[in-house]
Specification:
Shape: globular
Distance between the termini: 48 Å
Bound molecules: zinc ion
CATH class: Mainly Beta
Largest sheet: 3 strands, antiparallel
Number of strands: 5
Radius of gyration: 12 Å
Number of helices: 0
CATH architecture: Single Sheet
Oligomer: single chain
């Protein structure tokens, strides 16, 4: 089975399609809300919001 897998976006709840070769730590974009999502597990497939690259690290 090499069909794409549908995972729920943790941000908007929309369907995010992942290819069969997806790997942990891969960053994908939600096609609905455009959030950056990090693959934190592949079995089962779990997505989490990726760290915001534009976040201010200072302070
Ligand atoms: Zn989304």
């Amino acid at each position: 089975m090499t069909a794409a897998t549908i995972v729920k976006c943790p941000e908007c709840g929309g369907d995010v399609e992942l290819g069969a070769g997806v790997m942990v730590a891969e960053i994908v974009d939600c096609g609905i809300c455009s959030s950056g999502l990090e693959v934190v597990s592949v079995d089962p497939l779990i997505l989490a919001l990726a760290p915001d690259a534009e976040e201010d690290w200072g302070e």
